[in-house]
Structure formats: C-alpha cells, structure tokens
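User: For my dataset I need records formatted as: sequence, then structure tokens, nothing else. Please produce one.
Assistant:
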Amino acid sequence: MSTHPLPRPVDRDPGQVRTLLEGVAAVALLAALVGGVASALAWATYQVMVLLLS
C-alpha cells in the first residue's frame, strides 16, 4: 500500500481559484443573458396573442 499524503485544499493555487470563479461568473452572465432573451420573447409572444385575440 502506498502512503502518499492527500493534497490539502490549502495548497490550492490562487490563480486556479480565480480562473474557476471567472468561469462561474461567465456561466452566470450567460444564463442571465439567455434568461433575458427568453423573457423578451415570451413578452413579445404574449403581446402578439393579445393583439390577435382582441
């Protein structure tokens, strides 16, 4: 059996953490943009339906 110690989380590279946070921020921004576009499309569709049914 090997007795290699497990790497401690404290030894994590700050640059790696920053890259991870930037990736999470990019995904969150992309999700917000997609949500905004979907919301605008839903609102426009609703307006068209109101116009057609009125």
